[in-house]
Structures are given as structure tokens and as C-alpha cells.
Design a protein that fits this description.
Two copies of one chain form a homodimer.
Chain A (H helix, E strand, L loop, with lengths): L1 H8 L9 H13 L5 E12 L2 E11 L2 E13 L14 H23 L4 E13 L16 E10 L3 H13 L2 H8 L3 E7 L1
Antiparallel strand pairs in A: 1-2, 2-3, 4-5
Helix pairs in contact in A: 3-4, 3-5
């Protein structure tokens, strides 16, 4: 027990996570909840057909405007079988990337905070979708995925049960898992002409 | 009216959309709904800390296994202010990319089907999130975005009202808008140890 307490009091950097700074950050936000208010942004521009490009750089958080260290640019398109030009994955595939990377980031942080060294975290995600929805062929078929499955393989210097608990804790605190499973209000404004 | 009917019967390629093939594809799927069953996939691998990498290439659809023309690879990370190394945007920023690109792809297709030539489609998306949720500081704060705003600017050779209707139709048939606003069941499996 005393070892566990010591570990909690003096967390070490682990898994590439600066654990002391992470825990200090959480404490700082706990003392000043306004630091927790974040606003993320993306600017998208149509290229042609179903192909568009998104730029991501600035965001608000920790009490002020922030910038990623560089601007990130991502395309999206439809595949040729859906009459796109396959310049990039489809928008719905980026949902799978968002979910996998959110759960995995949480696993990295939580493992470090619990003193577990990770050896490997890999996940395979699949989403099932009936395109009769978006193609306007059926009003009984929803437009989006009807289900998503995520399968994680996790290896590290802890018993299987403890590793599985880290994944479960990440799920409980995942922003993307929350948005995908519970939904979020989206407001759409249009300036036309 | 007869002009409109003629346009509908003989759609031309427009906006980079092969409109005749698009409409033929929709008709083919209408006659054979099993072609509409798609399964998209992503494989993610933890790098270090909150940094992971996703590979996207194969998917099932149109009655068989398909491959994107090349493998696409995307990273995600947390920014330095959240004790990540800022190797890529956060997972929640990819949700904004997915939403913007899905709505914009629909706008490209729908405008072509309606005989409207687009000059410009740009969108700015913002998502508000209180990190007290994911940091475990409050159980009354959700983990994900509490709201998302999308502002579209659309220009083309049609009246403002018709352009706005194209955006609205895209929203009504957007897979990502549906998933984000209505949620989707996510099944999580773990192989640990």
C-alpha cells in the first residue's frame, strides 16, 4: 500500500507522458476551472466534386488563444466506387480515426498516471453504414453509421486485468466516445450568394 | 418547367462531379440495395504519450472488398498546453474535419445534380468543450463537446435561396451530421496482456 501511495505522490515520466506536469496541470485546472474552457476550430474549403481540404491551427484554451506548433491540413473525398476521386479517405473514416486516437491518448495518460509502462496499444475500428440513407433511397435507413466496433490490443508491465481497466477508464473519459455515443447539438449557419 | 425536366433527364458533369455516373450509381443501388452495405475501417497504433497513428485503406462496399488507391496515414496528439507533444491535431479537431468535409462533399454532389455550378464553398467550424470532464474534475461536465457551430459560405450561379437549399439538403443527408447529432452505438472489446 505504501508503495502505491508513494507512486501516486511522486509520479514519474512514463510512456512518453510527462506525468508530473500532467498531474500539476490537472491540479491547476481544478483550482481555476475557467482554464478548462476550450474552443477548437477547423476551416474547410471545397476543392472540387466531393473533395475538400481542412486547415487546423488555432484554438482557445487555458485562458487564452493558442496555436498548434504548425498548421495541419487534411483532405477528404469519396472513393471512386462512390463516384469521387479518392484523393483522401471519406469523412466517416475520419470519425474512426478520431475515436481510436482519443481512446489511445487517454490510455497513454492513464497508464502513466497509474505507473504502468505500455509496450503496445493497437486498435482496429469498423463502422457499418447502409448508404441507402445518404443516397436518398430510403427514409427508414439512417444516414450515418448504425454501429461502430473498436477492438483494442494492449500490452504492458501490468496484469491483464489492470491493463483492461486502463482501457475502460479511457472510455469513461473520452471526449470522442462521448460525442459519438451521446451526440452533440450542431448549429448550422449559411451565408449564400 | 420543361428545361428543368430536361436538366434532370440529362445531367452534365459539373463541379468536378461525374453527374451521369453518380445518378446511374444511385439507380443501380436502388435496384440492388445490398450494394449499399458498406463497412469502413481504421487501424490505429500508439506511438508514445498521447500520440498515435491511424492507417486507412481497405473497406467493404458495393458488394465486395475495396481498396483506396493508396494507404492514408493520420496522426493525432494532444497540444503542449495539455502536456502532449503537438505532433498532430487533437482527436476532437478531427471530428470538425469530418463534419465539414461530409457536408461539403454533399454540397458538391447535390449542386451538380441540381445543375448549379459552384464557385466557392468555405466553412468554419467551432466546438466548445469544458475539459473538467475528461480531466476527471467534475462529474457534472460531459467529456465531449457541449456544442458545435458550422458556418458555411457558398457562392455559385444560382440565387442565394437555391444555394442555401443545397446546404440544407446536404445536412439532411450527411452521414457525419447524423452520427454527431444523434449518436451511434459503439462496442468496445479489449485483448489485454
Amino acid at each position: 500500500m505504501s508503495t502505491t501511495l508513494t507512486e501516486k505522490k511522486m509520479p514519474e515520466p512514463r510512456n512518453g507522458v510527462d506525468t508530473p506536469t500532467l498531474l500539476a496541470t490537472i491540479n491547476a485546472v481544478g483550482a481555476q476551472p475557467e482554464l478548462a474552457q476550450f474552443r477548437f476550430r477547423a476551416v474547410n474549403r471545397w476543392q472540387q466534386g466531393t473533395h475538400s481540404r481542412t486547415r487546423i491551427q488555432s484554438f482557445y484554451g487555458a485562458g487564452g488563444e493558442q496555436m498548434h506548433e504548425r498548421e495541419f491540413t487534411y483532405d477528404a473525398d469519396h472513393p471512386t466506387v462512390l463516384v469521387g476521386r479518392d484523393q483522401a479517405p471519406t469523412p466517416v473514416e475520419f470519425l474512426l480515426h478520431a475515436l481510436a486516437s482519443c481512446l489511445t491518448a487517454g490510455i497513454g495518460n492513464i497508464a502513466a498516471a497509474r505507473g504502468v509502462t505500455l509496450h503496445e496499444v493497437e486498435s482496429t475500428l469498423e463502422g457499418d453504414i447502409d448508404l441507402q440513407g445518404i443516397l436518398g433511397l430510403s427514409d427508414r435507413v439512417r444516414n450515418g453509421y448504425r454501429s461502430i466496433r473498436a477492438t483494442f490490443t494492449i500490452k504492458g508491465d501490468a496484469p491483464a486485468e489492470k491493463l483492461a481497466q486502463i482501457v475502460e477508464q479511457s472510455r469513461k473519459r473520452s471526449a470522442v466516445y462521448d460525442v459519438l455515443t451521446n451526440g452533440v447539438p450542431v448549429e448550422l449557419m449559411v451565408h449564400a450568394g
